[in-house]
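Pasting as-is:
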Amino acid sequence: MPFCTINNVDINYEIMGEGKPIVMIHGFTPDSRLMQVCMEPIFAMRNGYKRIYFDLPGMGKTKGDTNINTTDDMLNIVLKFIDTIIPGQSFLLAGESYGGYLARGIIANRPEKVKGVAFICPLIIPDFEKRSLPSHTIIVEDKTFLNQLNELEEADFRSNNVVLDKKTWVRYKDEIVSGCSIADQDFLSKIRNNYGFSFEIDKIKFNEPSLFLLGLQDSVVGFKDAFAILEKFPRATFAILDKAGHNLQIEQEDLFNSLITEWLDRVVEVEEGLTIN
């Protein structure tokens, strides 16, 4: 994967395909594998998209930097990265968790460039104590498989997922734990202390096709807080999925694929002038 240097930070990124740019933003602590593995099967079935995957500073293969201390700083790097990779172009956004929070910041700063956004278990309220969260609940539990894990693996698996079976474990380990294990925790602790934007991000109505994918059992960011910003996204599909926690894209793979595909269809309708505003 190549690097793009922004403010002395070497951003690790990968571009797949050609066509309409879609910028993929992973969550806090994992890396771009989280987005790439869940999104690429969808684009294997449809052409015409330039998928841009990258590691946020301090995550994956992108190093942190002493000049990045807040989420404002993180957003600034992401905006400059987008302006460098696809200068002057309009694009789509897909953001998971913290990546969804950054996506709202991008919309606030580049409203004329963003032509659609998909939020996957998006962070709505940065302050954990102020979030409306369900208690952690296990929905599916394959005890025979769980007996094959060691004590630490099972404890981690239980704490982060609501579907506990082999398929979920393999993907969780490969797509999420793999990134978290190489993150720069010292650097990220600075960002955690300045997790929210210093500015209001939802001042405008975003009238392009949008998608909110929320887990009914998501005990990390919850689903209820997203209702507070729904009116800012008048073209949003708002889906709350049962049997889904904060790793919805893994636990409800078929619904995830269907709803992302339908969102892309709505974007195409606007581009082709079929949508009546």
